[in-house]
């Protein structure tokens, strides 16, 4: 947060600047998760996010994955190619757009998701074990409000 010294102009202290703190926390959590997913399943974070989104949606266009995940097109495309090369996702024709394809999990992708999802929930539970349900609900609500504020600005 910005601090005023002796009633003067606000001074930026990076360690107290909330966007910076949020970025640091996000990087630490993502790094921790990335390490676990890489060791256990050979998945990068973008690949895991893509698998999870496709698992939830059934069939989805890459552009919709970009919008939902806030990952850029190149990141999503690389993850989709890597997963297709491993036989975890398949591209199927998009009836509504001949220039586009839909992604869907293959049987191997569904099997992988069935293994990864419980580990993801377990990791989340360990990371937030010291927080009360009320704290987590409040934190989630604040994150969603921040997202809306940025999208509406």
UniProtKB/TrEMBL annotation:
InterPro entries: HTH_MarR-typ, Metal_resp_HTH_trans_reg, Tscrpt_reg_MarR-type_CS, WH-like_DNA-bd_sf, WH_DNA-bd_sf. Keywords: DNA-binding, Transcription, Transcription regulation. Transmembrane segments: none annotated. GO terms for molecular function: DNA binding; DNA-binding transcription factor activity. The keyword DNA-binding applies. SUPFAM superfamilies: Winged helix' DNA-binding domain. Pfam families: MarR_2. This is DNA-binding transcriptional regulator, MarR family. It comes from Sphingomonas carotinifaciens.
């Amino acid at each position: 947060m910005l601090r005023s010294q002796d009633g003067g102009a606000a001074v930026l202290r990076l360690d107290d600047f909330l966007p910076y703190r949020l970025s640091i926390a996000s990087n630490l959590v993502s790094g921790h998760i990335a390490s676990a997913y890489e060791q256990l399943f050979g998945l990068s974070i973008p690949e895991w996010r893509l698998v999870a989104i496709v698992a939830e949606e059934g069939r989805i266009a890459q552009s919709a994955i970009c919008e939902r995940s806030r990952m850029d097109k190149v990141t999503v495309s690389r993850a989709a190619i890597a997963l297709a090369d491993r036989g975890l996702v398949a591209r199927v024709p998009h009836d509504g757009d001949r220039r586009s394809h839909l992604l869907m999990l293959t049987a191997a992708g569904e099997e992988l998701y069935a293994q990864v999802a419980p580990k993801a929930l377990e990791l989340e539970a360990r990371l937030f074990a010291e927080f009360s349900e009320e704290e987590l609900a409040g934190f989630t609500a604040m994150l969603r409000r921040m997202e809306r504020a940025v999208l509406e600005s």
